[in-house]
TrEMBL record:
Signal peptide: none
Residue ranges annotated for the NAD(P)-binding domain, each copy included: 7-211
Pfam families xref list: NAD_binding_10
Native species: Mycena albidolilacea
Protein name: NAD-P-binding protein
Length: 225
């Protein structure tokens, strides 16, 4: 398998890259980054890793990165650290459109996109912790949430030719106990999901989903049991 990973220097991108290389030891991992200096040393020096530098609006670089790819994982997302200063447009959602256009041009069907419970799903029910988290985030960073919601809409409406999965993640645990990083997949208010997930556990689940394909055209929330 040849995987293209976006957002590979972020808090979820790094564990995803490492988990992929552990599971698919003889396969190729393509990292699309703006600055290769931010790639951790162990990934940068791995012989199975290809690093391509480019912007998210650079169609030539996106096309180059997509060559020979079997699947795409996007750990891109707007950062809440900018809060009220985040731009009023939806730049990350626009980047998703360009990525999906490039995927279709190279006949790549499999897409796993990471997002948050700000993206709603018809299977969701009421969950006080997740609703509180969603409303708090929307109050503090409305433009960030606008972009996140737009990502979900773009994937669902423009990904009709793709085998997409939207993975919704809320807050991350510290992962201080490597033996206790299990996550479960479900929907808001189903009695299984909560507002906390493990980065390590989520990375394991997501990489396994590449082959399992149990959540095609679905939007599960991952959380600790």
């Amino acid at each position: 398998m040849r995987l293209l990973l976006f957002g590979s220097t972020g808090s979820m991108g790094i564990p995803l890259a490492r988990e992929y290389l552990w599971v698919y030891r003889s396969s190729t991992l393509v990292l699309y980054v703006r600055n290769r200096a931010k790639v951790p040393k162990d990934l940068a020096e791995d012989r199975n890793v290809i690093i391509i530098e480019g912007e998210l609006d650079d169609m030539d670089s996106l096309s180059k990165a997509m060559e020979g790819v079997d699947a795409v994982i996007t750990a891109l997302g707007p950062t809440g650290r900018k809060g009220p200063f985040y731009p009023s447009g939806t730049p990350i959602a626009a980047a998703y459109i360009r990525i999906m256009v490039t995927m279709k041009g190279h006949n790549v069907r499999r897409l796993i996109a990471l997002t948050t419970p700000s993206v709603r799903d018809g299977h969701d029910q009421f969950s006080l912790p997740l609703v509180f988290l969603r409303k708090t985030f929307a109050t503090l960073a409305p433009n960030v949430v606008k972009d996140i919601v737009a990502i979900g809409r773009v994937v669902r409406t423009q990904g009709e030719e793709l085998d997409w999965t939207l993975i919704r993640l809320a807050l991350h645990s510290s992962d201080s106990d490597p033996e206790n990083c299990e996550v479960v997949a479900g929907y808001m208010g189903d009695g299984k999901t909560n507002a906390i997930s493990s980065r390590v556990g989520a990375a394991t689940f997501i990489i396994q989903e590449l082959d399992k394909r149990e959540w095609i055209w679905k939007s599960p929330i991952l959380s600790t049991p």
